[in-house]
């Protein structure tokens, strides 16, 4: 059995890659939305039916804080 080097496999993959998938990093720009996300912020993805109920992140946080306040004292983190 003939051994092939990893270099040849990588070259073959890059040659088969479509032109539109090649990313030109010289044209890359910083993420313009990065400043909007504060330090310590965690992104959570809501299911579409749940997201339809809320109009903003503030309304989600208000509801979650009320649920946390209603929890028994020993159940809080």
Explain the overall architecture:
The structure is a single chain. 38% of the residues lie in helices and 0% in strands. It is an all-alpha fold. It has one domain. The protein starts with 5 loop residues before the first helix and ends in a 7-residue tail after the last helix.
| SS class | mainly alpha
Helix content class: 25-40%
Mind describing the biggest β-sheet? none
The structural domain count equals 1
Number of strands: 0
Per DSSP, what share of the residues sits in E-state strands of 2 or more residues? under 5%
Q: Please, what is the average pLDDT?
A: 80
Compute the separation of the termini in Å: 60 Å
Shape: elongated
The topology string of helices and strands comes to HHH
Radius of gyration: 24 Å
Alpha plus pi helix count: 3
- Uncertain ranges: none
